[in-house]
Write a structure and sequence with these properties.
The chain is α/β, with parallel strands linked by helices. About 45% of the residues lie in helices and about 20% in strands. The strands form 3 sheets. Strands 5-6-4-1-7-8-9-12-11-10 form a 10-stranded mixed beta sheet, with helices on both faces. Bound molecules: GDP-alpha-D-glucose (GDG).
């Protein structure tokens, strides 16, 4: 038997919580600069939205603290209670890098890279899910609301349901849910679907993902019903689309900050005051279609549709899952393409693609959104894609053009974008040409339309909408 890892301090005796968020990561992460026991908040809109929801409801956050080293985890963050779930160094390899990110991640993103199926990874996934479920079982008050997040924890709803039928259980999937033809490759397909069916409400980014899940549930289990509601083991399980929104208030405020606006001007100057700045911001992930952009750009310089003097691109590729071979290969290939394009078309002191393999500070990210005339978001598959929505949120003066993949969840809402199929290089080139040449009137009309969509609801509204739907199940 694998010994239960003891990497974090056990929870102290505390009253049980009426609202519980369960996610792979806690909202804090180790901060090496602040010493051995230093912590800082994890970045991201999801953390701030869920934190504000939990602050209002005697809330508890259950998650992994992001390290398998022994560390004291703070008991509270911003007035909410934290309960760490330990993951050993071996489980980090098999549960996190293995089953979550080398089996489920590629499978759920159209199998762009071949998913790997290993029984030992699956066993580790089930074991870690059990540990999360145990933490919920112990910490949830009678009749509590429990909200489980994402593909790393799909078995948790059923595991909790078996021991705590009194709680109200919601699950939200941040990434796409694949169609039957792909999902059925998974040797443990029925277990995963049954795991999710333990929830009262299973939410997805799009209606398509919700329908995929519901159909699979009816095919693989005794569930019966419609795309929106199935009966399963005498219970009703609702499914539906709850498209996540940007942290609108935070991005809109930063976009008005004079220091950030001044920095955007400075970035423009640093780039040599080109006519058009194109921008990409992504985790360095093979699903994001970053190479496609660079290849399209190369061909546009080659046929003189773009001019190295006047059109430059900035690509931020945030380091991600670096110990996985697929990610290592993706970085290697991308860097080759970028250096080739710069070698072929760059000028002395003026590369055409400014490539940064770095995590940007928040204000710098907003300054880049403000500096960019054309934003390129071209994933082969993406649950939603918040970068697209954040860019639109920052363009308060109705300038800026968005090129968006039809395979991002965001494409179902952001109709004012230049929509592309990233597999179609000619189509991507045509969209870049059109976006670069779009006049002020077309740009304004498109951006106004995009902003009508994105500015309507904040990420806090998203969280409360989901919880409202869960309460009414
Ligand atoms: C998953 C799903 C779904 C990026 N670079 C920097 C930085 N970021 C921030 C962005 C944005 C977030 O990271 C990335 O979110 P995305 O939605 O674009 O993509 P994933 O990381 O793949 O997220 C996705 C999402 O979950 C939410 O449900 O939309 O489909 O795959 O917020 O701003 N932030 C900073 N510096 C950077 O360099 N500070």
């Amino acid at each position: 038997m694998t010994p239960r890892p003891d990497a974090v301090t056990p929870p102290v005796d505390e009253p049980r919580a009426s609202l519980v968020v369960v996610a792979n990561r806690l909202p804090v992460q180790p901060d090496a600069e602040a010493g051995v026991n230093g912590w800082r908040p994890s970045p991201g809109g999801l953390v701030s939205a869920l934190t504000s929801v939990l602050q209002r409801g005697n809330g508890l956050w259950i998650g992994w603290p992001g390290t398998s080293q022994h560390r004291h985890v703070p008991a509270h963050y911003e007035g909410i209670r934290l309960r760490p779930v330990p993951i050993s160094a071996d489980e980090y390899e098999t549960f996190y890098l293995g089953f979550s990110n080398a089996t489920l991640w590629p499978l759920y993103h159209d199998a762009i890279r071949p998913p790997a199926f290993h029984r030992t990874w699956w066993q580790s996934y089930a074991r870690v899910n059990r540990r999360f479920a145990d933490a919920v079982t112990e910490a949830a008050a009678p009749g509590a609301t429990v909200w489980v997040h994402d593909y790393q924890l799909q078995l948790v709803p059923r595991m909790v349901r078996e021991r705590r039928p009194d709680v109200r259980l919601g699950f939200f999937m941040h990434i796409p849910f694949p169609p039957l033809e792909l999902f059925n490759q998974l040797p443990w397909r029925r277990e995963i679907v049954e795991g999710l069916l333990g929830a009262d409400l299973v939410g997805f980014q799009t209606r398509q993902s919700a329908a995929n899940f519901s159909r699979l549930a009816r095919r693989l289990t005794t569930a019966d019903g419609t795309d929106a509601l199935v009966q399963y083991e005498g219970r009703r399980v609702r499914t539906g689309a709850f498209p996540i929104t940007a942290d609108v208030a935070r991005f809109a405020a930063a976009a008005q900050d004079p220091a950030v606006r001044a920095r955007a001007k400075e970035i423009r100057q640093d780039l040599g005051d080109p006519e058009v700045i194109l921008l990409g911001v992504d985790r360095l992930d093979y699903t994001k279609g970053i190479q496609q952009r660079a290849k399209a750009l190369a061909e546009l310089y080659a046929d003189h549709s773009l001019d190295p003097e006047h059109h430059v691109m900035v690509q931020i590729a945030v380091p991600s899952r670096e110990s996985d071979a697929h990610y290592e290969r993706e970085r290697h290939e991308l860097e080759q393409v970028v250096s080739q394009v710069n070698g072929d078309y760059g000028l002395v002191g003026r590369p055409v693609i400014h490539y940064l393999h770095q995590n940007m500070p928040f204000d710098e990210l907003v300054a880049l959104y403000l500096a960019a005339d054309v934003m390129l978001v071209t994933p082969f598959r993406d649950g939603m894609n918040l970068v697209a929505k954040e860019y639109v949120t920052c363009r308060t003066d109705l300038t800026g053009r968005l090129i968006l993949s039809e395979f991002a969840g965001a494409a179902t809402e952001l109709r004012g974008a230049f929509i592309v199929n990233p597999h179609d290089l000619e189509g991507v080139k045509e969209a870049i040409r059109s976006a670069v040449r779009a006049g002020p009137r077309e740009t304004r009309e498109r951006m106004a339309r995009l902003r009508r969509q994105t500015m309507r609801r904040d990420v806090y509204d998203w969280a409360t909408t989901f919880l409202g739907a869960l309460e009414s199940t």
